[in-house]
Amino acid sequence: MLLQKQVRDLMLPVARPLTGQMALSDAVGLILASGQMGLPVIDDRHAVIGFLSEHDCLRYLVSSSYYCDSRIQVADIMHPDPLCVTPGDSVLELAQQMSKVKPKNYPVVERGKLVGLITRRQVMTELNRMLRECKVAI
């Protein structure tokens, strides 16, 4: 039942989070390899300090690739202090929040450290699964 689903039930692991000192080209490589639309940025204690999306990168990739400028780092362009959720948060409440605010991806934080990522696509997939189960039960 959706009312009982928690973020921990749907969250994905983040194999390679970004760091603020990472070069833009390295960060883009990790984002592309992850299959996500962006990744959390962590400090040396694994605390989330930002989020970098494909959208954030695109404008800088255009100018950096044109001028062969590789000096841009993640900290220069990331969104600081992204909205985060905890593993115990309700999926239903998160879905309601996602319908009102823009982020498509939320870092999942427990005891101040990154433990995963949950995306709007995962939440939509679960909501749709539950809707299909309702139709079968009728």
From TrEMBL:
The keyword Glycosyltransferase does not apply. Residues 11-70, 78-133 form the CBS domain. InterPro entries: CBS_bac, CBS_dom, CBS_dom_sf, Diverse_CBS-Domain. SMART domains: CBS (SM00116). Keywords: CBS domain. It holds the Pfam family CBS. Gene3D superfamilies: CBS-domain (3.10.580.10). This is CBS domain protein. It comes from Marinobacterium lacunae.
